[in-house]
Amino acid sequence: MSRHIGIVAKGIVLDSVIDDLIKELAVATSSSEVIWQDYQFYRPCIINCAELYNYISLKFYSKESIMRNWYEYKEQYDDRAIHGFIDYCIMLFTNDPIMKSIAEIEQRFIYNKLNERIQKLNRSIQ
User: For the residues of the chain, what is the DSSP string, one character each?
Assistant: First the structure.
């Protein structure tokens, strides 16, 4: 039972972090609802993988880190097949050496979710 309580607690904290992220980005973008929806898509992966949870939490730890990550995303937006800010952050994690150190089942879960997202976005573009 305590594992479920831990997951719920992590979810509440993470929701708060993402809410703060959206508030900070409100000055730079009007797509806060899209960012929230993208986050909801990846939320199960983030909550169930401790390393990804820590990575995302650190990415959005302060206003400065949020804005730095946002501007990096905007600079690379045209160069990649990345459609959303959260997609970009997940892709950064998959390219990080930390990704190789997590359990194989977590890696598959993240890659499957990412592939599902890419396929969904590709269908919506066509």
Answer: -HHHHHHHHHHHHHHHHHHHHHHHHTTT-S-HHHHHHHHHHHHHHHHH-HHHHHHHHHHTSSHHHHHHHHHHHHHHGGGSS--SHHHHHHHHHHHSTHHHHS-HHHHHHHHHHHHHHHHHHHHHH-
Residue of 38, 49, 32 whose CA lies nearest to 116: 38
Contact 14, 56 (CB under 8 A): yes
**Cα distance between residue 110 and residue 92, in whole Å:** 12
Tens-digit pLDDT string for the chain (126 aa): 466 677 777 878 888 888 888 887 877 777 777 888 888 999 999 988 889 988 988 888 888 888 888 888 888 766 555 678 888 889 889 999 998 899 999 999 999 998 888 887 766 655
pTM: 0.80
